[in-house]
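Late entry, written up from scratch paper. The run itself happened at the end of the previous shift, but nothing got recorded in the book at the time, so transcribing now.
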Amino acid sequence: MIGAEGLKTDDLGLCFEHMIVFSAGGGGGGGGGIGAANVVGGRVITDWKDIPMELLLRIVSLVDDRTVIVASGVCSGWRDAICLGLTRLSLSWCKNNMNDLVLSLAPKFTKLLVLVLRQDKPQLEDNAVETVANCCHDLQDLDLSKSFKLSDRSLYALAHGCPNLTKLNISGCSAFSDTALEYLSNFCRKLKVLNLCGCVKAASDRALKAIGYNCNQLQSVILGWCENVGDVGIMSLAYGCPELRVLDLCGCVLITDDSVIALANNCRHLRSLGLYYCQNITDRAMYSLAHGQVKNKHGMWESVKNRYEEVGLMNLNISQCTALTPPAVQALCDSFPALHTCPGRHSLIISGCLNLTSVHCACAVQAHRAVHPLPHPAH
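Output as recorded:
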C-alpha cells in the first residue's frame, strides 16, 4: 500500500487474528485463533476477511491509522466498510510521499470529519488539498500546519469544497495571502477555531476584518508572530466575534490598548489572552480587563464570587510588556482569582517584567503568610 512505510498485509493478518479472538471473547474454537472457526454474532469466521462489518469497524477503531489504510486495501468489502465508516484520519506519521498518499486516499475516504496533515517537513502541494476539498465535503477539522509549499489555490479550493469547517490550522503556511484568507471567510462561516500562527502575509487587518464580519462563531484565534496585525484587525474580531474564549496575540507588536479595551468590553467569555512582547500595552488595558467584563452584569456579583474558576480570565501572558506597573496588574489579578502567579500553576505569566515581581495571586499571598506569619502583638 502506498505510503504505509513497510506495513504489509501479512502483518495486518496477524494483528487482526489476535484482536478478533479478543473481540469475540475467544469464540467457539477454544482460543485457537482464526483457523479454529470462531463464531461471531452467529456467523462462522474461518478467515479474518470474513469479519462482519460491524466488528471490522470496531476493530479499526482500536488500531493506528497506518493499519487502517492497509486494511482498506484488503478486499472490496473492507474497503467499502472502512471508507464509509471512517470519520477521523491522521497522516502526520507519514515522513515521505504524503502528497501521493492524500491523492490516493481522499477519493475513498469521503466521509471524513477530521483530517490531520501536519508535517515535520513540507510535503503537501496544492493538488492534494484540492482533492480533499473536492471529495471530503463534510470535513469539519483540518490541520495543514507547516505546509510551506501550499499557495492560495488551496484556500480557494477549501472555500468551495469544505463549507462546514469548524477548525482550521494553517499555522506556518507562510505563502498564503490575506486575499485568499478573506475569500475563505466568505464561505467557511462556521469556523470556531482558527490557527494563523506565523501566517505573516495572510493575517492582516484586511483579512481579520472579513473574519470578524463573516465568522461570528469563532472561539479561538491564534495570531502569534503575525506582525502585520494591528488594532483595526483585533477590534474587528472583538466586535464581530463575541464568543471568543482564546486569543493569542504574542508578538503582534503593533497592537495597543485599544485592542484590549475592545476585547474587554465585547468578549465576555474571554478566558485566555496572549500579549507576549506587545510592548505598546499599558495600564489602561489592564484596568479595562479588570473591570470591563463585569461592569454590565447587574446582579451577577455573587455568582461571580461563587464560581470564579469558571468566569473571566484564566490565562494571561504579559511577558515583556515592560510598560505595565504593579498596581494595574495586581488589580487584574484581584479581579480574576483564576490567574495564578504561584509555583506550579503560573497562569499569569510575567517573565521579563522585573517591575512586576511584587504582583501576587491570592493563594501565593496565603502561602507566604503561612510560611512567614505575622508576629502576635505583645499583651
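Residues 66 and 106 are 15 Å apart (CA to CA).
(Scratch paper discarded after transcription.)
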